[in-house]
Design a protein that fits this description.
31% strand, 15 strands, Rossmann fold, 2 domains, globular, 6-stranded parallel sheet, 337 residues, alpha/beta, Dihydrodipicolinate Reductase, domain 2, homotetramer
């Protein structure tokens, strides 16, 4: 039985509480929030669970082995650090931290203490992304060529962050999950339509050492809602459309084959190939439920989470580079390997 | 009655012949092509029309007032120049010329000789683009915010040019037609998947002095065919989807309104607005038929074509800048005003 | 302040409780259910509300003016009758009753007692149906020509009823709401694929005195989910697609105009008309919230509900006729006027 | 080398001429049409082919082995009969004849003379229908449950026939091609919106001895164009959408399995099964080209055409029964076996 404490009972915290409280071999022991209203709601929702406005109460309890952190990002660094130093395993909301330095430091502490550090990149636990990961791992797509993602909507303008900070973590966590190598460069362009210095439209362009390329279109100010990712390989290509009700992932047996032209050693011949399209059955399970189960298994077995601190730090790093590029008018920012 | 001569009877020439030969007050007088086979086909298709392998035969005829040029782009500069110097009006295939210098020179000659110089940007004469132009001219969209276009497919790899040279002229001619000012910068990124040094995937990013931004995604190597353009203004937003059978243009009464927050002079309040969507009836006429009629009217009235040499030169200039940016790894290329 | 009692806290009852308990000038006073588990849940969900396993407890309370009935249909007749005879206003789940005789009797009692009798046809309160009703009432469609509805899915096989009993009430309540006259005939065909004598595929065909025609396709055994209704008039035509996220109602300015041919008095000339398509903005409010407000207003003002007992009885009558036709192999059943 | 003669050079005849004239081992020898204008056009289109206004000229030529008949249906009976009696093989436009009696007579003559009689049901030669036929023949769908087809549009009102006569032959030829047994009954309902006694909206319902059921919705007066057929079996289900550009046939691994409930010998348990969806690659070849090749192979090998006189007669019979049902207000018409 793993005891779990939760800090932050605002927008996302209740989802964590609901999903962890129904896992086998897990007990939600305490919920912490500094707002009396939110704490009262937590007490009503979970009568048998302790509530406290003091984070240290969670850390002091020996029956709490893992801490779930769902606070605003400005608290992440301090709360994760204190939990790790108290010997607790941690699942923290994305993004892991506010900047690279913080992220690196947390990675270092987790390594030193031997505690599990996982970042809540929920998309990785959807049936769609799991199926895509499986396809890439089995090399079904052949050599990967590009990744192109569109995530646009007439969306809620955030208070403090721009559209890239808001939306890119979803797609970047998927990208980093699928592609293991580190990019060499990041470029970002954007436009501010409502508030000055707050981009509501953003493009992100990421290049890899081997020529693989990822491109992203983010917008809070689009007439239609699009959530579509193209992933192309030399053998097959994937369209992942999150707005589709039942066929979110389509695998196209399409591509080109390139061969030297027989007539000339300097020419190249491009042949097109089109075959069947398959929309595989996807698991329907709620992503956060699968994620909770996975995190608890990692805690139990001391194994590495799918979305560990390193993955979280990589996303933080790419977003930081994008922000730098934005400030410099789309200049290409190199990523130190 | 306007006499017309055509040079080039390969892929596009027959379409020009067909559409000009059926215009009122116009007569197709002669067709020129250096290939005997193509010339023989022209003679079969149009029994009453003269055929010749020599371009100068067209230019010498006093009954030919206008020359239609549908040759490979490497001939454009010479053929357009000679026609203008011979006092002929000209409609030339896109792109106008191979480089800026050529394009500027042709503009200069056209100005000096007083001849009409038009570039065949057929898309401008589609019902969809005409409706969009009408909407923008009437200020129905409010202040323009951005233009985003996707033109991808598992398409035919061209022999000599990359995907941006191949596909961008369509979208850039539309952009320049809708937006009268000149951009300040161009960036392009791309990847080569079949032949080295020939991009089959390309992104183009264009910025304007007032913050307006245009972004393009081109691909010959996509699993699905997409031809979709978003054009957003402060009042309305347009989705132009050329793959739609009957509702190619959708006008969304969606947007945001920004006002200073009453509670604080430093805060800004963003309100969302969503209203009806209208898909207006579009003219079904073949674009090239409308274009032929328009060109002949310009010849008759000595008026300026919708898609004149200046428009053609602007597209050439943007593509050249994109090519420069590609070579320099996505560097922002400034456009001299 | 209107006091309300609810009987039945199974699948639908909690939705009624939630929506009525948040209406202004309304108080949910008591909840009745014979199951101790469901009653315990009601007590947890609504701490201040009385709970009882005895229906008569609701009817005895003088602070309850209206009773909401969300029990299985086999209880409807008795519970509605007793409520009306106790002087209570009633909102009862669809269908109103098990057969015509019961429905007519309840209508009669409601008329005699002066109590409000409303049937919960929730679809009538959706933004989509309200907009369509508004269009028809304003004669925007011209003369109505036909109604065609498809409601199919790989759906849940019901225990006791066939697919027409299960799904037709939705579409028939919409049809009867839009078209005020009574049909002259009903035909139904169907096939049983799982259990004998239980249709999982059904077609329903309804004709009106003036030639107007309604046709329905229902299925529990389809590979795709379709919820699409076409409503055509001489001036405009509507496509109502409930699977669309944001443009559920599309109004096509399409049609034909028929005129005597000038050349011949015996000939008729058919002209086609196609114009804009408009997808009007729809109210996003939860249908049951609007319905609760409407029912309470009827109770307060003693006005006639949109979906009154008569509407409920009409739906019961059409379904009964469909069942008769099914049993007789698709024979046309006449409806007495 | 098979010599072919064509009678009728109006709407469809030129397509037959184009496709047969390019087949290997086939020569188009003569074209017949009573209209001088159409005959002149035929002479222009095919300079080396004889033209004649007299049908008997075709029948007399010994170098013509097969006659293609593309005249109005009122000429079919006489022209087919004369061709068969002259020992010619025949491909005749759909429908084979105006009524059952004529169709039966032609069948009888074809049998007696040993000539090939084929009916031009072009849809059977599309990549989509060929793939579906292949799936059904391999029993991939399991036991067939139903066939449901929608073919609607704002279409051209025909002069002489109603919407069922106009559109049903397409779907009925597909149905009869896929399902070998003869139906037991036909019902049809319809409404006349433009001209009296000419249905512009029609429904057709067909039942088979084993409970299999086919249902059709035809309309000339719909706001949207739909061409969608559902074919369901116990193992798999097909959606055939002819409006889709690239994925016309989708095979869903969906269905139910029915088993006796273990708890009770009187109960039945329904389990749902959903798996992958596959859109198989389809042949892109023009249907009429494949049909011409097939017909010529049948002529050469004296083998039975896919769409022979018997298939043509069956479609004529079902349409005649539908017309009878329409006249009797939707009455079920039994088909003699």
């Amino acid at each position: 039985m793993i005891g779990v404490g939760l800090v932050g009972y605002g927008y996302w915290g209740p989802n964590l509480a609901r999903n962890f409280s129904r896992q086998a071999d897990c007990r939600l022991i305490a919920i912490c929030d500094k707002s009396p209203e939110r704490l009262a709601k937590a007490a009503r929702d979970y009568p048998g669970v302790a509530v406290t406005p003091r984070y240290r109460d969670l850390l002091r309890r020996s029956d709490i082995q893992a801490v779930l952190i769902a606070t605003p990002v400005s608290f992440h660094y301090r709360f994760v650090k204190e939990a790790l130093l108290a010997g607790k395993d941690v699942l923290v909301e994305k993004p892991l931290a506010e900047n690279n330095r913080q992220a690196e430091k947390l990675l270092e502490i987790a390594g030193r203490t031997g505690c599990i550090l996982a970042v809540d990149h929920t998309f990785l636990f959807t049936g769609a992304v799991r199926k895509i990961k499986e396809l890439l791992d089995s090399k079904a797509l052949g050599d990967l060529l590009y990744f192109n993602s569109v995530r646009i909507n007439l969306g809620l303008f955030q208070e403090d962050v721009n559209v890239i900070h808001d939306l890119a973590p979803h797609d970047l966590s998927i990208l980093c999950h699928l592609i293991d190598t580190m990019p060499v460069s990041v470029q970002a362009m954007g436009a501010c339509h409502a508030r000055p210095n707050q981009e509501s439209l953003g493009y992100l362009h990421i290049e890899y050492p081997d020529g693989f390329m990822a491109h992203f279109h983010f917008s809070w100010l689009a007439p239609v809602k699009i959530r579509q990712t193209l992933i192309a390989g030399t053998h097959k290509m994937i369209v992942y459309d999150d707005m589709e009700m039942s066929e979110k992932v389509k695998i196209y047996d399409k591509g080109i084959s390139v061969s030297p032209d027989q007539d000339s050693m300097y020419q190249i011949k491009v042949d097109y190939r089109t075959g069947d399209m398959v929309a595989p059955k996807l698991a329907h399970r709620e992503a956060l439920d699968a994620e909770a189960e996975h995190f608890l298994a990692c805690v139990r077995d001391r194994s590495q989470p799918l979305s560990d601190g390193k993955a979280g730090a990589r996303v933080v790093r790419l977003i930081a580079a994008a922000q730098q590029s934005l400030l410099r008018g789309g200049k290409k920012m190199l990523i130190n390997q």
